[in-house]
Amino acid sequence: MPYTVSSNIISDMLSGAIQASFDPLAFVLSFLQNGSLRALAVGADEPVTDPVKIPTAIGQGVDYRFATWYGILAPVKTPKPVLRTLSDAIAAASRDGELQQKIKAQGIKPDIVALDAFDSYIDGDLTRLAPLAKGIAEKQ
After folding, report:
1. How far, in Å, CA of 127 to CA of 103, rounded?
2. What pTM was estimated for this model as a whole?
3. Could you report the per-residue pLDDT of 111-133, keeping only the tens digit for each?
4. Which residues, in sequence order, are CB contacts of 60 under 8 Å at separation 6+?
5. Is residue 26 part of a domain?
6. What span, in angstroms and rounded, lies between the C-alpha atoms of 43 and 21?
7. Average pLDDT of 2-14?
8. Does residue 75 belong to any structural domain of this protein?
9. Is 90 within 8 Å of 72 (Cβ atoms)?
10. What is the pLDDT, as a whole number, of residue 84?
11. Residue 1: is its pLDDT beyond 70?
12. Are 21 and 40 in contact (CB under 8 A)?
């Protein structure tokens, strides 16, 4: 049965029940820093350099690219002016230096995708991952 909670994956890795997993860096950072877990690679286009150093999977000869992203979503029928107000407020907050440092300390690279481009960004990920999702669904 697939894992549904990252804490269960981490627990099983720490106990030796499983040997490897891809998890968001923010979830495992403290275990990497205290030496309980070892990072082999990230699925991002660029290696992680801070607060820990982790090479890319592609750089290690593994054809794997997938990076966790975080976004704020709203119901589909939310009026455009409301979406614009929320987007502008989130963008303004994201420029706060203290907030950026807290985000970076978790191993997350702060990046803003403009409101008008966010749907396309999500659609691109869905299109790229559709064959993988189909393969998983067929096996169940």
Report:
1. 28
2. 0.66
3. 888 888 988 988 988 888 888 77
4. 40, 41
5. yes
6. 11
7. 90
8. no
9. yes
10. 94
11. no
12. no
Could you write out the DSSP letters of every residue in 82-111? HHHHHHHHHHHHHT-HHHHHHHHHTT----
Q: Sorting pLDDT into bands at 50, 70 and 90, what band is 140?
A: low
Distances (CA, A) of 74 to 31, 84, 117: 33, 11, 15
- Say if 52 falls within a structural domain: yes
Q: Where are the alpha helices (DSSP H) in the chain?
A: 6-15, 25-33, 80-94, 97-105, 115-139
In a domain, 17, yes or no: yes
Q: What digits encode the pLDDT tens for the residues 32-60?
A: 999 999 999 998 888 988 889 999 999 99
Is 19 strand, coil or helix? coil
Whether residues 89 and 48 fall in one domain: no
Contact at 8 Å (CB) between 106 and 99? no
Domain housing 125: 80-139
Residue 102: left if φ>0, alpha if ψ -120 to 50, beta else—which one? alpha
Shared domain for 54 and 103, answered yes or no, is no
- What was the pLDDT predicted at 59? 93
Domain check: are 10 and 48 in the same one? yes
